[in-house]
Amino acid sequence: HTHTHTPTTNSRTLLASLTYLRVHLSRMLSSSLACLDDSVLFSVLRFADGKTVAHLGAASRGLRAKLGEGFGSSVWEALCEGLGYRQSGTRTRGRLPWRSVYYANLCVECHEPGTVFVNDRALSWPNARFALCDAHVRSQNLCNVARRPEIGGDKARLRHVLFRIATVRRELGFTSNKKKKRRSY
Question: Residue 54 and residue 47: Cα distance in Å, rounded?
Fold first, then answer.
């Protein structure tokens, strides 16, 4: 009896296998990295991006513990400095952990590095602003913003944020200020 696989079944099997492999390799790598001396680990992690550091920390308790200590702060600080992200507060007031500075500079929609920052003191955004990447400042399709903890499922807050985004788009020239002409029939 021959067994036939449809392309969909094969691609699902391949995707499941790749996911399994990625998770297990990530755990093995994370466990191995956690055993390294801090100076060696720092030398390795400074070449990683923030997503990789976050994934490695999530895959290993030992590495998560290291990334949560003072050592972790210097890793996130190096990532932020490499990308030009700065603290907004003074040395004694208003400073955030470097990990929070990194995340505050990511697009609220896709978590890629943000390029446009929208000031908004009405909601509880870190540093009273949020970021959008190039693709999402132009996109009319923002579906993940509604799920943000700052919105909390509140429709009025969501309308406020979408209004702020529309205002920034208009100011940057991504939308037209012209009113649509009504057609008469």
Answer: 13
Residues 142-178 as b or e (16 or more Cβ within 10 Å = b): beebeebebbeeeeebbeebeebbeebbeeeeeeeee
**Tokens in use for 140?**
């009319």
Nearest to 150 by CA among 103, 93, 98: 103
Could you tell me the pTM of the whole model?
0.67
Do 33 and 41 contact (CB within 8 A), yes or no?
A: yes
- 127-160, pLDDT tens digit by residue? 678 889 988 988 888 888 888 888 888 899 888 8
pLDDT band at 24 (very low <50, low <70, confident <90, very high): low
The answer for residues whose C-beta is within 8 angstroms of residue 106's C-beta and 6 or more apart is 50, 112, 113, 114, 131
